[in-house]
Write a sequence for this structure.
């Protein structure tokens, strides 16, 4: 059973949402955003996190805390009046507008989990000094652990799985973020830059920029 960790203040809307998701076959738990929220998240080991957004700064801080601890997909519940605050360059996976339809949210959860699930082998993926452990969602370079956000990890895994092939920014958005992603293609540039800063150095170059086209993972790596 898919486990959903809901971070939100207790309210009638949240209770009805949790109940609706439970009736749809999910196991849900609700907790407010507090000092121990990450500790509870680790203890419950959910498959996906659902967060009620109360402000852009909270969204940014909480998503960073979650993804630094666990590579988990996050869906934000956003009020229509806060749509302008949804920054397309933030590392979020999806969002729905409140009040949301439980059926739509259920479909989004299933679609996001299907897109981000590990469908490949659990064997280690080696590219020179770079090692990806799909079973643990861990990455290391030269034996040094590399802390990646969920989207950085998914982007890296996708590029490595198609090494040597050039992908446009739009293609990467479609394959890694999904066809209905709200942000622009600059999101790809931001994540590529962050990814390079974490896995590359003077002796390791893995991701190449193909001028006027996009990016590729170096075939000889």
């Amino acid at each position: 059973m898919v486990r959903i960790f809901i971070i939100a203040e207790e309210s009638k809307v949240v209770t009805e949402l949790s109940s609706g998701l439970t009736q749809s076959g999910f196991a849900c738990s609700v907790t407010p955003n507090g000092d121990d929220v990450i500790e509870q998240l680790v203890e419950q080991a959910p498959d996906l996190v659902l967060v009620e957004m109360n402000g852009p700064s909270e969204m940014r801080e909480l998503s960073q805390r979650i993804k630094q601890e666990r590579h988990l997909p996050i869906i934000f519940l956003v009020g229509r009046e806060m749509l302008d605050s949804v920054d397309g360059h933030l590392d979020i996976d999806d969002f729905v507008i409140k009040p949301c339809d439980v059926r739509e949210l259920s479909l989004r959860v299933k679609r996001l989990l299907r897109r981000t699930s590990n469908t490949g082998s659990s064997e280690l993926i080696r590219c020179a000094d770079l090692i990806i452990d799909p079973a643990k969602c861990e990455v290391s370079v030269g034996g040094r652990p590399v802390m990646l956000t969920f989207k950085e990890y998914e982007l890296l895994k996708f590029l490595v799985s198609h090494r040597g092939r050039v992908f446009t920014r739009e293609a990467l958005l479609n394959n890694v973020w999904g066809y209905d992603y709200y942000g622009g293609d600059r999101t790809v540039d931001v994540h590529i830059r962050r990814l390079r800063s974490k896995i590359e150095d003077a002796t390791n170059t893995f991701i190449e920029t193909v001028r006027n086209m996009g990016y590729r993972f170096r075939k000889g790596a």
Observations:
- Helices lie at 12-23, 37-44, 56-69, 102-116, 150-161, 169-177, 186-199.
